[in-house]
Amino acid sequence: MPESSDPEITEFFLPELPRLLPYVYHPQAAKLEIASNGWVRRQLGDTFAGEEDLLYFLRQRNGIYGPLTVPEATDQRALDIADWYQYVTVIDSFVSDRSALGASADAARAVFARILGDFDTDVEADEAFPYGRAGQDLWRRISPGLSPAQIGRFGASLEAFLRGCATEIHAKLTDRVPDYEDCLTVRLESFGCDFIELMTEYGAEVDMTELIPEFTEVHLHCRRQMIIINDLLSWRKEHAQDDKMTVVRVLTEGEGLSLQQAVDRLCDLVEEHEKAYIAARDEILGGALGEREDVRRYLRGLDHLMGGSQEFEYLTPRYFGDGSVWDGTTSGWVDLNAEVTRFRDRPHTPAEDADGAGTAGPGDTGRATAPEPEGVNAVAEDAAPDSGAAPARPTADDRAAIARLRSIVSPGTERRSGGDGQEPDASEAGGPGRRPARGATRTEPWKVVTAPGALPVLGHALPLWRRPLEFLGGLPTDADLVEIRLGPKKAYLAHSPELAQQVLTDSRTFDKGGPLFEKARLLVGNGLVSSEWAPHKRQRRLLQPAFHPSRVPGYIGLMGEELEEELAAWEPGKALDVSDTMHGLTLKITARTMFATTADRRAIDEVAYCMPVIMRGVYKRMIAPTGLQEKLPTAHNRDFEQVRVRMRRLIRETVEAYRTGDSEDTGDLMSILVNTRDEETGEGLSDEEIHDQVMTLLIGGTETTGNTMAWVFHTLATHPHIEERLHEELDTVLAGRVPGFGDLHRLPYTGRVITETLRMYPPAWLLTRATTRATELAGRSIDAGTIVLYSPYALGHNPAIYADPDTFDPDRWLPERAEGLPRGFNLPFGGGSRKCIGDTLGAAETIITLAGIAARWRLRTVPGTKAGTAVPRASLGTGPLPMVPERRDRVSGPAGLTLSSAR
Q1: pTM of the full predicted structure?
Q2: DSSP labels, 416-478
Q3: Is the pLDDT of residue 629 over 80?
Q4: ∠ CA 824-579-563 to the nearest 5 degrees?
């Protein structure tokens, strides 16, 4: 690979891009890709210098682009489109190559003129000119399915594509970087936007020629979203080939931004264009044109085009090096100079560069890996950090385990494989009475209502304070937006999945805010949970490597050790408060993952003592109407201030120990917080920032998981048939031992029990945002500074979304049942850029804890107690939950099987 044009910039971080549109594989995608590859060999093989170059092209998987973008087309039309995209990709590949078409703009124009001429089937193809021969074959197949108007557009679109290619060649040869709009004008042509839209019509068997003016806004944002995503994900290749006509280079060389600044700005533009496209599309669907079946089919085709294009950009080795294999990761560090790369959880270290370990993949710890035999992919993808050895290549079980965790944090997104292993169409409606399925277009008007029962002066503040769950349950289930009054001020509750998604994915407009968050910042600092958009963006980037899935196996080992110690203290028949026990256990687990390598047992015990006092104090102060109570000289206030001082001292001493040590990333959270550096400034986190993050992570990692586990055991005790099924799975897989990372994917029912618990009893039951600017929600104008709420609890109990929402039914999360649910239907971990950073780790902890306990014990409610009443405080808890542990008779496991061997 050629050296970077700017040797000082070797990597950049790609944040998660929004994926608001469906991506669906054609039912015959695998067969179509293979058939299209055969067509390339027959028709275009002579354009390549030799067999090696041809195979290199075929390994880029360009043949899957068509099946990804027209999943509803007939098999023949999908194959025609696949071959067409392969044809233009061959041309585009040689345009970028200075030893081929890219060597001369004039020579390229001459070739392009011949290509245009040979598309006339009345002219006999020159067998020695493969571009013409292949073009005529395509034209004979595609033209009968086009109207006369579409045939005219086809010729113009091909001419525009070739004109754009010639302009790109000229820019490269003259070393000219255009401005942003000039670049996009050329890219609209060289990207083939006109014929891409025409191929979408061909796949949907519709003719939109007469309606093109009506689609101006839709096409504008569709095209720009696809171009920007392409330029972002292909930057490694374009950078190596010194291409000038890319928006990344325009921003870096033309506008003087750093590479990371350019990437971040373009990611924001992707989100803006995607949302603008959806708004323009929905406006058409809501009007007279939306009643036409051909219009609806075309717009559905554009949805699939945009979503499928983005999926292709992730999976193709064209942008990441010959031999790279996609593991499903969509965010991370990209190495510009590696022969083969994929998204990494953190950048290279100087030692790594000195050792020449430039090809390591996600999860690499910065240590060089041993050379592999010739022909073996050298990328260690999703490898687990280890303080003493090179990361191991993930096994099939590892990938399945991560997939199980993702199915919990984003339920309903599991890929259900048929005979060809492809993903089914997830855009079909979910049945009578349900909201539109994920990816489906909205056709009905928004329903905006005002909540009943407002009191003079107080508005709805009193029922929200005294009976919040009852208040939420009494709202109209079919309402999209509910206006409520908090004293004299208007606030709005996003009551439908669509609006909740809008609030969560537009974090600039709907920023963290409201009185609860403002009070939280004063008490626990400006950490990830409470910080506003600008500081959060930097914090998230710095902390994200600590929560990469590759870190999970190491954390799980610590979880298992803490769980073993906890269970060793249980006595059959001796009652315990399950809520307190689970909070204590999850707090110790969180502390171990935070301080795994330096803190002794006394430090863990200190955290276990201080944090419950702090959490109770924080909650009381957050909900207090005035600040008077916390100033009174009470014993509680004195204890609160004392333990705050103790925790601050413990964190300060721990940070000092890390800073004066060997300064390596040893795999625990604290070492990552201490060693992480901002790619743009080179600065790390200050001691105060680390304190704020530690407090945030300790509180978040304890409250949510502790409450979830308490609800799980209460539910199992009241649903014996579900408990029995759970025990059957655990006995079969674990035979009484604590599970390890490799067991996670073997516990599907356990995972569904967790997911159903999070639906019915989401720890974060009500959250607020504050608008930073005037905006619109469900057609209602919203002023800047307005409080907007959303409630995972209300969504989870809405009969318009779920059948029998008050029934605990883990099997509702079977893929075939969950696929009909709307996007944004289940939000226990939030969404968008503010989604819980530890969602995967939290899911792992809940499975390990539930499976490890239930494999050995069953918990029974103490007779005569009223347990399981939802207590909606800062987190939705059970309140006191006395239960009696009973040892289980279980299937015995293989001799010698231990926790370590299971991992």
Answers
A1: 0.57
A2: PP-TT-PPPP--S--STTPPPPTTPPP-SPP-EEE-S-PBTTTBTHHHHHH-HHHHHHTS-TT
A3: no
A4: 90
